[in-house]
Amino acid sequence: MSIEIENITKKFSTFNALSNVSLTIPSGELVALLGPSGCGKTTLLRIIAGLEYADSGRILFNGEDTTKSHVRERKVGFVFQHYALFRHMTVFDNVAFGLTVRPKETRPTKQQISEKVMNLLHLVQMENMANRYPAQLSGGQRQRIALARALAVEPQVLLLDEPFGALDAQVRAELRRWLRKLHDEIHVTSVFVTHDQEEALEVADRIVVMNKGKIEQAGTPDQVYESPASAFVLSFLGNVNLFHGRISQGQGQLGGLKVDSNGYAGADDTPAVAYVRSHDIEIDRVWRDETSIKAEIRHILKLGPAVRVSLSIDGSGDFIDAELTRDVFQSLALRHGESVFVRPRQVRVFVDDYQI
Amino acid sequence: MSASPRTSKDRSQTEPTVVRWLLIAIAVTFLMLFLILPLAAVFSQAFDKGFTVYLDALREADTLSSIKLTVLTAAFCVPLNLFFGVTAAWAIAKFSFPGKNLLITLIDLPFSVSPVISGLIYVLIFGLQGWIGPWLQDHDIRIVFAVPGIILATIFVTFPFVARELIPLMEAQGREEEEAALVLGASGLQTFWRVTLPNVKWGIIYGVILCNARAMGEFGAVSVVSGHIRGMTNTVPLHVEILYNEYNYTAAFAVASLLAFLALITLVIKTIAEWKVQQQLQKN
Amino acid sequence: MKLFKRQNNVLPGFGPTLGFTIFYLSLIVLIPLSALVFRTAGLTWGEFVSTVTAPRVMASYKVTFGAALVAASINAVFGVLVAWVLVRYKFPGRKIADALVDLPFALPTAVAGITLATIYSPNGWVGRFLEPLGIKVAFTPLGITLAMTFIGLPFVVRTVQPVVEEIEVELEEAALCLGASRWQTIQRVIFPMLLPSILTGFALAFARAVGEYGSIIFIAGNMPMVSEITPLLIITKLEQFDYQGATAIACVMLLASFLMLLVINLLQKWSRRYAE
Question: Nearest Cα to C120, choosing from C151, C141, C101?
Fold first, then answer.
């Protein structure tokens, strides 16, 4: 089922949680709402679910307006950040809850419910835990039960609020892959909220980057990563270096960096910022071309497979970070205090959030 | 779950053994003198003249009628305040609105008012010189110096018990489970009965048991509104007073022993309920 | 986002439950209490002042508030000690002692009253040992203090106990590592942490003692000017059909309770000043 979000605005007293947000989520996709905390992503998710009401705007499911309908009637599956499992019920009863609260006419028989629950527990690989209580489960297991419970009512939409937020790193990575696989099997339109860019890039079909109650960009992981629509998107996805400076007449002088800025042809002595991702910075021992900048190695930090080198640019003294693979680092045999040349492979210049 | 309270054993630092035992000795002596001794005295005095005398005192007609009235009073107060407590806790703990703290303070108000005043206010309204006293007299309705007054005053003094226990408990449990139930299609009542209520069950029991203990044991407020009519408007505590003032000590303590026994049962259930509430909160 | 409370909550029943809460609260508590204030307003200021400052009334304040102050102080000292011992030390019977602390809450005041009066009467279990020493408890202000100590006992213990439980071991260990002696640690680290709860417990015990009636009248002797407490005086006036007098004195008592309530609320606010 597709979800259309039209001009949603939501205020909490004087704080604009969401301002005029519009978005279309195609049927069957797995979408990530990505952004820093306080950007409105959870509020948007709760509005889609019907747990929160927007001040204005509409939510359409399959083209049908659901804005006015109660959360109970929306047939959404919602997985809460802290799972919200019913602590006084067994795993089985938790998963069965959505079926047992149905009015008599539409309620499945006991046996049907039991079969369905066991199938779901099988799907989430928890069939041995049916008689346990939530308190007896690990975080990852609770998460899977929460998911099974949400799926039991055969929702048209699955909404997940920071589904992996409360788990430790290893379980998180495992569940991430598992969720992706599960989605490929059941294909229910799913939206999940996360502040972890890596999670969004790995799991989602489509990423919606949000900031300060607005959508900055919506697109496939490749789109948002390769062609970020704003400085915010660029700096939120991955580590970036900033070069402050001015551009005029198609040329930019940004912290030792000379760039063509033809897109801002009309700009005359306008302040601008150039962004370069850490892994888009090459280190050379020799001068290559006019994009090479002389710099001194100040710090070397080995981070598993990658190596982060901090350098200070000669002249301005600005610090930049370069991320190299271990191989490249070793073949260059870089050492602390050495003078080298850095060369940005890809530079993006933004003036007032407009990209060239 | 593993958040067991720290005990002296895991303490890396503690007082020297002598000091420790001295402090324990002082504390225990203080508690003995103030708690155990009175409790023992009640039962000792009650059985002073033997078991038969004890039983006779309890079987006396006025005693039986006072027990009846006390049970009747509790039977009115406890359900009413239970209903109020649950309703108030739902509104206060699950929603946010301006003036919430004021409302909580007002609910607690009866605890800070002297029991004598709790009785007096009803006399001022329903008494002969009261606001609607004359009208009541014209219509031959008796409220103060009659059973309804006793019930009203008791409702007043036991007013906050359930609410003040449930409000923090329900606040601590948050709204997520209820929201989850609604998303899964449960109706409001289903959500309340099947999700909220089981989670606060022991909190309710705790509140109810204390409410009941106070309802059955209240003396000051009831004393003001009862009029002390023997066999008519005498609750058990008032009956104890009458017997005591008549120098019928054995009978007074025999009846008092019933109340002391009730207090002990209350403490046992309360301790269990407290333990269960702690357990439930730790499941989070 | 959790900072912002949601006004439009999907949970049902807010209107009816809040409506009933306010209705029931008004019916049982607010309207009756306001009757007291309106009744007092029927007096002129001069009448009111002369009623509430009559010598017998003044003597009753002195007895009531004085005894309550002493009782609350006793409870502050022993309450902290009991709370500390119950949390920190293991000894046989600790759990029973812990449960019994609430006895004064659960035991009807009339029962407490006749029992204390009996124990401390000149030939009672304790009284007979005090009598030769020239200490009279029953039927004196000392007896009033005793009864007030009994009913106020749980307040300090139960407000201090959770705070003692929550003191992190690390704090004491840190003080130890920094070279503090045990006594210095207690004085400079633990006591300041407990102080707000001790004061709150003190105020609660005091407020309760001031309003107490049932457990006191049996042991007090109730001699006007000497051992007559204010709540009893209200009842005496009422029994003499002096409604105005009873109401005026009750109004003063009510004012005192409101003041105590305010103090307690401020203390609780103060005790949370370091909380996030």
Answer: C141
